[in-house]
Amino acid sequence: MLRKTFSWFALPFLAWTIFLYGCGRDLGTAQGVADEFVDQHYVNFDLHKAKAYAVSLALDKVNEEIRLTAGQKIDASTQKPKINYRLLEKKEGERRASFLYEGTIQSDDGSSFTRKWLIAARKESDQWRVSNFTESD
User: Fold this and answer.
1) How far apart are CA 85 and CA 117, in angstroms?
2) Phi then psi for 28, rounded to 5 degrees?
3) How far apart are CA 133 and CA 38, in angstroms?
4) Which strands, in side-by-side order, build the sheet including 82-92?
5) What is residue 35's three-state secondary structure?
6) Closest CA to 68 of 47, 94, 87
7) In the prediction, which pLDDT does 17 show?
8) What is the 8-class DSSP label of residue 54?
9) Distance between CA atoms of 92 and 123, rounded to whole angstroms?
10) What is the pLDDT of residue 78?
11) In this structure, which topology does domain 29-136 adopt according to CATH?
């Protein structure tokens, strides 16, 4: 009886785990790391998580943003804009890559605007990391 109960409860958990694994991004690729950086930095406003994917100049920039926003509380009560983005262009090499994204930022009052984010990545010790990022209109 215990065996049947375990199987009954384990099956949905196993299916959910397979679904999540299939939908996750591959952080072993340049694009996976760039996408995750954009999500954490621009969509979730979580600079500390974005910092985990950054090196070099990108790391310096994120650290400066953390310093400048110290004391500013961003939590569930903070009104955040809705941000959607799409990849416009990518250039990938063996050890360097760049990705151009276009983000649409929508505020609660219904207004919106777009920004472009250029994310440069490089492979260090067999791990891809964001090495620089810039924002433009």
Assistant:
1) 10
2) -90, 0
3) 10
4) 82-92, 96-106, 112-124, 127-136
5) helix
6) 47
7) 43
8) B
9) 11
10) 73
11) Nuclear Transport Factor 2; Chain: A, (3.10.450)
pLDDT of residue 52: 97
| pLDDT tens series, the chain, 137 aa | 445 444 555 545 444 444 434 457 899 999 999 999 999 999 999 999 999 999 999 999 999 999 999 988 767 777 789 999 999 999 999 999 999 999 999 998 889 999 999 999 999 999 999 999 999 99
CB atoms within 10 A of CB 119: 26
Helix, strand, coil shares of the chain, percent, nearest 5, are 40, 35, 25
The residue ranges of every structural domain in the chain are 29-136
- How many whole angstroms separate alpha carbon 86 and alpha carbon 130? 18
- Token pair in block for residue 76: 């569930």
Q: Is the dihedral of CA 87, 105, 77, 53 positive or negative?
A: positive
- Quick count: other Cβ atoms within 10 Å of Cβ 106? 13
